[in-house]
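Run log, item B.
One chain of 165 residues. Sequence copied directly from the ordering sheet:
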Amino acid sequence: MLALQEFGITDPSSNFSLCEVSVTDTQTIKQRRLPDQLQNLAERIGLSSRYYLKTNGVTETLVPDELAPELVRESAVHFLQLNAVEVAIQLTLQDFSIFRQIEPTEYIDDLFELKSRYGTPMLEQFAALVNKEMFWVVSEVCSENNPVRRMKIIKQFVKVASKRI
């Protein structure tokens, strides 16, 4: 296991397991063992979760209950805290994963309102995603009551949009 090497642990990997500890909004700590062959760990983890190596056979919890409020607080991220370039990259990747699946015939069917047997499923899914992103922008801007923070949110969205071009 690479994690054992990183921490300088020389014991056999069969003595350890990878666990995910997550905290809910109600500050309930959940701990579960992950399968040995699990991949894409960075893509799977939520903001309120942590990975830990646990020695097999040890029954104590990995995170004490007193740390739950701190983990919940750390997981609360506001839009202004996010890197505009990273947000632009992630939105672009999400959009492109659907856009690339749109068949050329879907554009024709939609443009001329043709009822083909294939329909326009990916085009509709892409339109729904764009609408969802638009609603997110409107919601973020309109939900902020403070004019200065609202201006900062608009400025952040402009930065994100300029990086997507």
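Observations after the first pass:
- The longest strand covers residues 16-23.
- The longest helix spans residues 121-142.
Flagged for discussion on Thursday.
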